[in-house]
Amino acid sequence: MNLALPALVPALPALGAAATLAVGRRSPGLARPLAIVPVAVSAVLALVVAIQLGTGQVQDAATRLTPTGGPEISLAIHLDGYSSLISVLVGLVATCVQVYSTAYLKDDPRYPSYAALVSLFTAAMFLVVYSGDLIVLLVGWEVMGICSYFLIGHHWETEDARSASLKAFLVTKLGDVPFLFGIFLLGADAGSFRIEDVLRAAGDGRLGHPTLIALLLLAGVAGKSAQFPLHTWLPDAMAGPTPVSALIHAATMVAAGIYLVARLLPVFLLSGAALVVLAVMAAVTMIGSALCALAQDDLKRVLAYSTVGQLGYMAGALASGDREASVFHLVSHGAFKALLFLAAGVVIHAAHTNSISAMSGIPGLRKRVPDAYWTTAIALIALIGLPPFSGFFSKEAVLTAAEHAANGDALTNGVGPASAVPQAAGWIVLISAGLTALLTAAYAARLFLVAFHSPAGAAVPAGAKAPAPAGHESDAPYSPEPDEADPAVAEPPAMRWPLWVLAVPTMGFGIAGLRSDWLPALLDGGSLKPSAVTAVTGTGLAVVGVLLAYGAWRSATARTTEGLPAAAEPGRVPEQAGAPAAEVIVADPGRALLGPLFGPARHGFGVDRLYSALFVRPVEAAARLVRFLDREVVETYVRGSGAGVDLLGRIVRLAQTGNAQTYLSALLAGVVLLVVLVAV
Known about the structure:
Number of helices: 27
Strand order of the largest sheet: 1-2
Shape: globular
Strand content: under 5%
């Protein structure tokens, strides 16, 4: 293979980002082609690289960047089935996002900088995927972090966007510090930062601190992939533009942590304790995020908590020793979650609000956005995990991996011994994943029914104008973004056709895991077929979740039909920020399903408040103390020393009269005084 091809994959979006920044503001007409073309060409090249590499092949190439006096840093490329598969996903989603953004942000004066950051973000993820050196991988890892800060804060004029971007940056950096030490320790133990050398050292048992290394790396993974306890930044990141949410949640930043653990799984298999920690982290994340999603009113926050939970599935598969199942679900989830976010953008464009309770009061919403309606239905079925869509096969692969690990026969597929995976990790993942399957089906059904099928959203009579929504629920967390679109204007094709492009892998990608010479041959060669027990159990739990949500919705609808608020004045555009004018009464099945847990789940079980009490407020108090000491104590001494010198100068200046007789008299007096002192 010509190595120029994989080298161009991350290089082209980076060059496109530089060109967009250089000429985008002066020549706005060039910003869109400079944003789309390099990313689209990189997507095609990623597919070409994957085809040329073929199945079961690995290719490494490296050149030394700099000597360090220890492990060298190399500009290395590592190509295998995992990098091929994920690079194709990144290219597809990034291209769809760039095309979609040309319409979604068509009137945004900061579009050139936005498009450049999206391109740079994409280049950084390609660098992470293709990198064969941990230090170079770290560069891409950190570039994604800073790009996410700017993209989430794109609407910096709003307080929500500013605080969300800062929170995302600080929380992920909190995980990146131990992650950096983990990389250094791993390189020191292996004698190299090259990933192939690290894996060889792990296979030979030459790593001296595998548990410490794995736990340090997991801290960074928890931050980037939004796993408990560093998951709190992701729901708030919904204040950024919706296409950015699709990119972050589907194919780049949050996927990077899972991909890293999959690449370094032989290292993690050396520590049973680290696998148990990963399993517990995944279990808490899965169940907690699914409960939170069931209580959210903001459409994008529902999807954000959904992403957190699905990443928990992937982490659970890794804790069970099966990286094939984890990456299978990563790619499957990347397709249907990108579809969900882009479809949500279309719905928000039409409804002029993020609130699903407000959407429930818009007559005929599903008929105004038929493309978004049907593609949302497809993606939600995949999210629930019902056959024959891709989510069913990838979710069942995770459950099958957990089942085997619980039975002491982990599907490590030759990456390490099956005995390296503790059975406890398998049981933890299996039980939590089963409960999460039920909860996922419930919140997905709730979202669809409340947003599109509320009795208040009946068809609009012919010639009537749809009223604007009244507002979101008063006690619900809300992450609005400025929306200047005219709800009466249909969504442009650039916002519709990417939905159907992503719907294709959402519906059909799952069958790639059924035959051993298809997707499994591209990865480790293990089986990705669901076992009969987990397939029946997982599907049964999903169906139960849907039926519970439907029953609760019907019951809530019957109770609240007469209590729905009057429609808003025709043509009124609702406010998207701040407290709503009144409480919205809506048939919400989440209240009935969660009962007393609804309030805590709506506010993330108080984790943010806990962190604020334990960390934020003490740090702010310490900052105020330091400020006081600096301004009132240190500066007082500085000002005092200056005042003392000034006073001394004034005193000395009094003796400078300019009278020579006075100077001579003082000199003689001094001489006499010295003589007397010497004589005595």
